[in-house]
Amino acid sequence: MLAVPAPPVRHQQLIVTIYGLYGRGSGDALPVSVLISMLGTLGYDAPGVRSSVSRLKAKGVLKSVRRDGVAKYELSDSVMDVFREGDRRIFAPERATPLDAWVMAVFSVPESLRNRRHQLRTELSALGFGCVASGVWIAPHQILDQARERLASRGLMQYVDLFKSDYLFDGPMRPKIAEWWDLQAIDEQFGEFLALYEGAGELWSGLVGDNPEAALAESSAELRRYAFQFYVPMLTVWRRFPYRDPNLPLEYLPENWRGPLVRQTFQAIHRLAAPLAAAYAEELIHGRDRLVTH
What we know:
Layout: H1 11-22, H2 32-41, H3 46-58, E1 62-67, E2 70-75, H4 77-91, E3 102-107, H5 114-127, E4 130-133, E5 136-140, H6 144-153, E6 160-165, H7 174-180, H8 183-197, H9 200-208, H10 212-218, H11 221-238, H12 241-244, H13 259-286
Antiparallel strand pairs: 1-2, 3-5, 3-6, 4-5
């Protein structure tokens, strides 16, 4: 197997990804021993895993449960909601078109609640909004429902008015979009992803062909392990991009915008490597004796 890219990700980020992928169903609480095995496959030691689990529990991301006499951890209910909310954006986002409407968020927060103002800006930015002016933010209308739900869950809707609207402007939109979003920063992050994974779709196509189901049925334990090592860190890096990229119409973006290439690369790896990685994770969770020994 070829070397696995090594993106700069931390224990806690990987654990959250693992739970998002393999620990969200009913009864899918994971013991620390399984997390240690999974992170060990990714090159991380047991003390660091135990420490990260403790931190995630203290933050309310994980909660401890006891199943079949074994101490385990599962995602907290609030984090489960975040994962459900994020699935569509991470795996199947909708790109806006020039004919689509916009959603405007107009807010006013008292000076005495500056921390809430900062939280509101952070949430809007994370949802993919761009800043038009102080207290006025804009995004493609596709995220209206998600924005309403997110802001309500954070107790912020009382400060915000949301409008679905058209923008009446006869000039070119690209300069306006460049004012409202930091496109250069987003594109630089795309470049970092491509530096690690560009060409990986072709790599996986060469390894397993173009039929993920057939590849899984014929796969070796070594290939499943390699897929897990490749896919989980890649998805950990990827998870932040669908929130930072607002999926604006391509007509409004720079001609050399790397967003489509980044998404094409992710989707190719996801389609071919994810089933193999999931099979390896299931072996660790339910049947470790089937794994190859290293």
